Every structure is written in C-alpha cells, then in structure tokens.
Amino acid sequence: MQDPEKLKKRWEFQRTYQNGRKYWNRNFVIYVLNTDFNSLRLGITVSKKTGKSVQRNRVKRLIRESFRQLRPMMKIGYDVVVVGRTPASRLTCQEARNALAHLFRKAAILKKDR
C-alpha cells in the first residue's frame, strides 16, 4: 500500500471517528467516511489490549492483506479506519477477509459481487 492510500495524521483518524459511520462485528470495528478524494484510504488501529506486539502486528498484517485482496471490489472516495479487536488475533487470513468483507458490505462500500 502506497502512502497516498494511508491515513497517517491524527486529525485524519479523528475526523473519520467523529464524522464517519461505524460498523462492527466480533473481530473488527470499521469507521467509514465519504470524502471528496478520488481514492480509497485505509487507517489501522490495534489497541494494546489486544496483546503483545507480536499479536498486534499479526492483526495489522491480516487487515492489510485482507484490504489488499478486497480493494479491487471496493468503491473509491472513502476513508476507512479498521480497529482490530482481541479475537482477531486468532483468525486465519481467510476468516479475517470474510469478516472485513461482511463489514464493507454492511457499509455499502463493496461493489456488487461479479
């Protein structure tokens, strides 16, 4: 994922938290904000409550890989913040992808299945 496709600044995350719509399941929480940008940007947050750094980094890798696989099927013009919850550290890559796809469908940012 390249830098223009990432949320990095604190104010970008705060704007998405405060003005975006929230969707959740057992493993993830996503905040989705419609923007004027012609791109889809991702921010990832995993709390220290999730576990030690090895577990937190694994959850971040799962989120990034799932997003990479789902990105061609997603609509552009959104900022998305994904928050990894504790149970996400026990997911397989396929389970994480399915959980995020379900949330993206709920948020209506996933294009119709081809």
Descriptive overview:
This protein is an alpha+beta fold and 114 residues long. The protein has one domain: Ribosomal Protein S5, domain 2 (2-Layer Sandwich), CATH 3.30.230. The protein is built from 3 helices and 4 strands, in the order αβββαβα. The chain has helices spanning 10-19, 53-70, 93-106; strands at 21-24, 28-34, 40-46, 78-84. Strands 1-2-4-3 form a 4-stranded mixed β-sheet, sandwiched between helices. Helix 2 links the parallel strand 3 (40-46) and strand 4 (78-84). Helix 2 (53-70) packs across helix 3. The radius of gyration is 13 Å and the shape is globular.
Give the tally of structural domains.
Answer: 1
For the largest sheet, list the strands in their spatial order. Answer: 1-2-4-3
**The CATH C-level class name:** Alpha Beta
**Cα-atom radius of gyration:** 13 Å
Note the gap between the termini. Answer: 24 Å
Query: Main sheet, how many strands, which sense, barrel?
Result: 4 strands, mixed
Q: Got a strand count?
A: 4
Could you say which overall geometry the principal axes of the C-alpha atoms support? globular
Average pLDDT, to the nearest integer? 94
So how many helices?
3
CATH architecture identity: 2-Layer Sandwich
Which ranges are low-confidence, i.e. pLDDT below 50, for 5 or more consecutive residues? none
* SSE sequence, one letter per element: HEEEHEH
Helix and strand topology:
Layout: H1 10-19, E1 21-24, E2 28-34, E3 40-46, H2 53-70, E4 78-84, H3 93-106
Parallel strand pairs: 3-4
Antiparallel strand pairs: 1-2, 2-4
Helix pairs in contact: 2-3
